[in-house]
Every structure is written in C-alpha cells, then in structure tokens.
C-alpha cells in the first residue's frame, strides 16, 4: 500500500527497505528518495540511527541532530528490532513489497537475522540488494569495520593531502562515506536497468575502500604510470602549474590556470610579460618542471592587491579563479542562492528546517522534498497499518514487547 506522501519523480513507484545508518548508506538512499523512491527507514527501537546522537549541533527548534537531518529526508521511520524473530518476520513481510534493500551492516551481521542476500535471493528473486561496507563482501579485510577516517587513511588520499613538511591530513568532510554512497546509488540504478530487462535482481557490493581507490583519479594514474608515490604539495596541483592557493594582500585566492593561453594572458596583464615567452614556462610541462621559481614570482605579484581586486581583474581577463569562502560566504553567494541550493522543510514538531538541496537537476522529473527528516519511529503505526494491515491492538502489543 502506498504512503499518503505520494512521491513523484523519475523513481516514483519504487519502494526501498532501508537498513542503513550513519552516512554512506543514508546518502545513497536519500538520493534515490529525492528522485521519487518511497523509503521505509528501519531503526532500532529507542536508539535509532547512530547519528541521532551526533550532537551538538541540533536543528533549530528541534532536538534532531544536524548530522542526521543532512542525510535522511524523504524517509519514513519505522522502529523495528530485527534481532528478534518477530521483528525478522515483519521485516520479511515488508521486504516482499519492496524493490530495493540497502544495508550497511558489518559483513556477516545480517546473516544472523536471516536477512543476508544469500538468504533472501531465492525468496525474492527480483530484489535489488545493495550492501555497503568498509571493505566489501570478499577479500582478507571483509570482516573489518570501516569508518571514513580509516578509509581515507588506507585509500591513499591522506598521503596526498597536507603540507609537504606536515602530517598527512584527512579531508575536512567524510568523502570516503560520501563517495561510497554515491557509487552505491549508481550501482542500484544500473541494477534497476538490468531488472527492467530481465526481471531479476542482484547484489550491489560496494566497498568504501574500492570507492576511495577509484577516486584517486589523476594521482592514482600518476602512480601507475611511474611507480613513484606522489608527494604532498599542500594546495598545489601535481600535474598543472599554476593551479593552487596564493596569498593576497588581505587573504588568499585560488588560481586555476590550466592552459598555456590563460598563463600568457596572466603574465601579460599583471607585470610578468618576460615570463610569457620564457622557454621555462611557455608550456604546462615546462612550468611543472620549474614550478619553484615561477610560484615565487607569482606570489610576489599576487600579494600586491586584495582578494576582491584580483577576483574582479581575473574575471575581466577570463582567468579562472575563486575566493576561498567560509560557509557563511558559501550560503550567501548569489550563485548558490540563485540555484536554490538550500531548501526549507517543516520538522515533525512544526519547526522550519533548512537543508541542503539535491544537486541533480532534471528538467522533466526533478527531485522533490516530501518528508522532512523524521523523528524516531514517527511513521511506525502508519506503516504497520498501511503496509501490513495490522490493527491498533497488534501494534500496541508489538510496542509492549519491544519489537517496534
């Protein structure tokens, strides 16, 4: 039975049984939910998703953590103890009505509850079952827990991040989890296409470590091409010069001069004309080889004017650049405002709640925002009645027994 919050969008009509928590799994499911899928988020009674306790801060006017709110809109919360046989039976009845199951339990945990892919595939051959773990379903590390900081360390990005003479640095947001969730979403969409063609489901096996290796991108390829470990360059680029942060008279700016024409324009307009024709700097390959001298000269020039002056002048001469915004600057930026990157929803208690919008803009089936991040168990009775036909007495007993 469909929810009264009838979804629309490219994935409308799809139903997801959501066994995820923290960030990688919820990121995947929220993306699918924004695009129209109907989601039942399963949470442990009384405790809920771990991130409900990741406070402070809380969303204004509520007791809900900002962390939880960022990855859990468009989901209906059902508290269900799947460690108990009664909870497992209810879970199976709900899964029977769903197209997709997404989980990020530690490898092997759901097998104890009769809810692993191997245990469900024969009962539900059309089910798309997405598993997101730190290290995947195979290999010597499969049973290890995976946390974002661990994945950033083991995936190599920390060795590339930071100043040359400093310690390796974690990226300031949990990119290991976020990329894992987005790769999971891509995998689910591919599995949906396969199901359309064959009627059959499959398992989508997402390893956060695999994902982190995949997005090593040019740095990973630099290593494969040379066999040499890339060194930390702070804010500089290993393959493009000048492409980094520079100090200005009153702050800092990013310059992204990614081609020879832009470099020539910069030199001719800003007092470095002699460098524009110097064989040491005419091509990018030459600039990479001679970066130290070049960057010293550019740094002297850039510190002569404030950031706002540079932004205006560089834009005038079509040279890519950007001021380094704090988050207060980001959310006040006219481009961010014009694109509608912040939305407002109404929390369960009636308080307004600002959230970051879905970045996927579809011309015909845009993302929709139907359900604010739910309170713990907010939709339990509604779902048990609407999906399973349970009456009030049955639900009351389940609550009394600690099942929901």
Structure write-up:
The protein has 404 residues and is of the alpha/beta class. The chain folds into two domains: 15-215 and 337-400, Rossmann fold, CATH 3.40.50; 243-323, formyl-coa transferase, domain 3, CATH 3.30.1540. Helix content is 38%, strand content 13%. The chain contains 18 helices and eleven strands. The protein has helices spanning 24-34, 66-69, 85-95, 117-120, 148-154, 157-160, 175-198, 208-214, 217-226, 260-269, 273-276, 284-289, 291-302, 307-316, 327-332, 334-338, 380-388, 392-400; strands at residues 15-19, 38-43, 76-79, 100-103, 128-133, 203-207, 243-247, 252-256, 321-323, 342-346, 352-356. It has a six-stranded parallel β-sheet with strand order 3-2-1-4-5-6, with helices on both faces. The longest helix is centred in the middle third of the chain and has 24 residues, at 175-198. The two termini are 20 Å apart. The mean pLDDT is 96.
Question: What labels describe this entry?
Answer:
formyl-coa transferase, domain 3; 11 strands; elongated; 2 domains; 404 residues; three-stranded antiparallel sheet; 13% strand
């Amino acid at each position: 039975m469909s929810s009264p919050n009838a979804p629309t969008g490219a994935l409308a009509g799809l139903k997801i049984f959501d066994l995820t928590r923290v960030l990688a799994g919820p990121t995947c499911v929220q993306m699918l939910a924004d695009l129209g899928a109907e989601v039942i988020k399963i949470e442990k009674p009384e405790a809920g998703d771990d991130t409900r306790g990741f406070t402070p801060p809380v969303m204004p006017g509520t007791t809900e953590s900002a962390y939880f709110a960022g990855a859990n809109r468009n989901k209906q919360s059902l508290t269900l103890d799947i460690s108990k046989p009664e909870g497992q039976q209810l879970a199976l009845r709900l899964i029977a009505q769903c197209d997709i199951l997404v989980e990020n339990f530690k490898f092997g945990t759901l097998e104890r509850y009769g809810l692993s892919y191997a245990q469900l595939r024969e009962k539900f051959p059309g089910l798309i079952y997405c598993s997101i773990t730190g290290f995947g379903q195979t290999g010597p590390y499969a049973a290890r827990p995976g946390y974002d900081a661990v994945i950033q360390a083991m995936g190599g990005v920390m060795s590339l991040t930071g100043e040359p003479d400093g310690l390796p640095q974690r990226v300031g947001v949990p990119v290991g989890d976020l990329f894992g969730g987005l790769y999971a979403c891509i995998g689910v969409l591919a599995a949906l296409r396969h199901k359309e063609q064959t009627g059959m489901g499959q398992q989508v096996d997402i390893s956060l470590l695999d994902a982190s290796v995949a997005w090593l991108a040019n740095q990973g390829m630099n290593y494969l091409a040379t066999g040499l470990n890339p060194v930390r360059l702070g804010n500089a680029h290993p393959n493009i010069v000048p492409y980094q942060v520079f100090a200005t008279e009153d702050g800092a700016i990013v310059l992204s001069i990614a081609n020879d024409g832009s470099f020539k324009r910069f030199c001719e307009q800003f007092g470095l004309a002699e460098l524009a024709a110097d064989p040491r700097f005419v091509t990018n390959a030459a600039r990479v080889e001679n970066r130290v001298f070049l960057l010293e000269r550019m740094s002297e020039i850039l510190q002569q004017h404030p950031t706002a002056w540079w932004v205006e002048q560089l834009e005038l001469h079509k040279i890519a650049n950007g001021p380094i915004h704090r988050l207060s600057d980001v959310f006040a930026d006219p481009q961010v405002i014009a694109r509608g990157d912040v939305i407002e929803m109404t929390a369960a208690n009636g308080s307004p709640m600002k959230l970051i919008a879905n970045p996927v803009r579809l011309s015909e089936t845009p993302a929709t925002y139907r359900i604010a991040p739910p309170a713990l168990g907010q939709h339990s009775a509604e779902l048990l009645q609407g999906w399973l036909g349970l009456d009030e007495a049955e639900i009351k007993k389940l609550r009394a027994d600690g099942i929901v």
